[in-house]
Amino acid sequence: MSSIVKAAGTDCAGYFVKATVPQEQADTICAGQDFTDPNTAKAFMNATWYGEPYQSEFMTKTGLTNMQYAYFFADAPDYFGGVISQATGEIAV
Which domain holds residue 22? Predict the structure, then answer.
């Protein structure tokens, strides 16, 4: 899963910028994050798949607003949520 997210062509900060997060904040959030590492990817995915308490922890850690959180996990192409949705479908096949 993590390799599919990384292969989508967007790095960690790129997904946050797409969600209207300022570049500087995105760079801070993503410092040291490696989406090819399953544990890193899991921390991001848990927030949307399992909801609370992961969502609150994710929002506190990243400083995202509710709108930015919704954009980040939007099930649309080029958004993190859309990429993990597509990746899940590819794994299931």
Answer: 2-92
